[in-house]
Amino acid sequence: MSSINTILADAHDLFMDGFERIIEELDYPAVKVVGKASSAVALRELMHKIEADLLFIELNFSDEDAFELISYIKQEFPNTRLCVLSGYIDHKFVKEAFQNGADGYYSKYNDLGELTECVNELMLGNRFLASGLQITPRKNGLSVTESQPFEDRFLLRKKLTRREQEVLGLITKAMNNKEIAEELYISDQTVGVHRKNIMRKLGVRNTVNLIKFAIDHQLV
To answer: Same domain, yes or no, for 25 and 123?
Structure first.
């Protein structure tokens, strides 16, 4: 069997370099990393240039929603097997990844001994879910996300609906409710509701702190 041409996509170059060495050392199957991308834009370009059998992709890109990117890749490149390789292990992310077309989900916290099984299953056309991961809530009702004391930009953005993200972006431009309403073709009252919900979800009490929080955490 010839080598499995593989692309790695992750915002952290250091991680990709380390994972490349690990996966290329697998005894069987033979894997060859033929490209790496550290942004969604770079990955789109790379996919159109290089024919890949397998793609390992993180979710933490700052330039595009990862789930929309997964959906795009699976539509444009249906023959490429796509496996999320992520530190985000909440069941909601796992479920959404599969709903958007992912073929597998592997946690960065999992034992590397599962890699061989992961690659084999994916290349056989099967779905793969690494041990310890699930697509339904945990029995104690506490999600992984809720148990984490620190939330990064990706987790914070996933708290907000698409409309709330749009409203937040306009709030950071110092637009008032009326201006935002005109921009989005919704009522002032609806904007006010979105504004309150955004502040509640992000844990801030006024617009000044909301704008500072959004900029500090790169939410816009």
So the answer is: yes
